[in-house]
């Protein structure tokens, strides 16, 4: 994993070999303009920027020589005082300038919020995953200097590091191959990551799942020699007035079960546990930030495999809340394990439930690879939508038409998990299934607990080139959005 040290200085260090000084590029009146602070750029002021390939657009990086063997990096997308553009620019720098020993941000910033966004983008973007490469070289840590007279508190730099760890740990888990990451080992990894945090970890094995009536997890995991697990990560600080529950889909590998996927569709299915990795690291970050909110993550872990013991299409299973499901499609398994998790989360009567899942290919068809779908209660959807915007991540509220619920009616059980042959509103139907497992606000209430479903099937994995703070591969998206949501609750 890439490592770095961040420090803030009132002035830029001297030009030295193996150093790069980041200069912003904007466009005014159709003319490219360099924007800098605290560093002498007189040696490049008269360059023909256009002929050098310099652009003002995001992700554009052009390196030119600076004095004493140093370099300038002319980076597009700079907007003064715009935290989103600063975060994105910082991510571009972290992702693309790994060959330098020292990176100096010589950009004008207005306040501490600007400083945080720039450094957060850098820290999240400065990432590599080479755990399985035999020729991987141990990279030396990069020193990052933010040259500014703006006062940046140590707590702000600590927050940058907490955000970095949360996103990078999520990416590491998602990138791990399924022969090493399976329900039992995922549970062990969760315990390892939680060590030293103010959280409690509870792991339910297959025997406890059977005793607790978790038919969804057991039904999905039946076909694998690696039995399912449910992991509960709870942070309960003194004085917390609000309670929030995160439920994550954790299918460590998805073959489709007996409803077997085609070979091409099976590639990348190790990513099907992204939701569980996301909620795990969100709660750990919430604990490290010491937010005054009672936050719990439920990781619903199973491996969906075909075998003689696997659940068959047409089988009926009973989930944690007592509802029965006719399994018409074993490849619609995520909603089955989430049903158990949502029912369990409901039993503690939280103020909000958020489930996170790579649930449907229909999400990717509808919204592409950078925008997640949000479904559920209007107020809950709006709260998470605002959190994604504050974090520079992309989501969109989707309609939730109740008439589509009829597609899940079963002749022999309470419901089916999928309507085979009818692709109408696939993302929305998945959400409507999950709603059936949201409990009441209290023992005496008829109102359901506020709930929002986040379908990140597309944004979980970037199969193209990196951009901003997003690398190729596992993205770690929406961890920071969940943290921002928890912060709004803590306030």
Tally of separate domains? 2
- Quaternary class: single chain
- In angstroms, what is the radius of gyration? 24 Å
For the largest beta sheet, what order do the strands appear in spatially? 8-9-11-10-14-18-15-16
% residues in beta strands: 15-25%
Please tally the helical runs, counting DSSP H or I stretches of 4 or more residues.
13
Give structural notes.
- The chain folds into two domains: 4-152, 3-Layer(aba) Sandwich (Leucine Aminopeptidase, subunit E, domain 1); 167-490, Aminopeptidase (3-Layer(aba) Sandwich), CATH 3.40.630.
- 30% of the residues lie in helices and 22% in strands.
- The chain has helices at 83-96, 112-125, 154-175, 183-194, 206-211, 215-221, 263-266, 274-288, 334-346, 361-367, 378-390, 426-435, 479-490; strands at 4-9, 19-28, 31-35, 61-65, 71-76, 102-105, 142-147, 200-204, 229-235, 243-254, 294-304, 315-318, 324-327, 352-357, 372-376, 395-397, 415-416, 451-455, 461-462, 473-474.
- An eight-stranded mixed sheet has the order 8-9-11-10-14-18-15-16, with helices on both faces.
- Helix 3 (154-175) runs antiparallel to helix 8 (274-288), helix 9 (334-346) runs parallel beside helix 12 and helix 11 packs across helix 13 (479-490).
- It starts with a strand and ends with a helix.
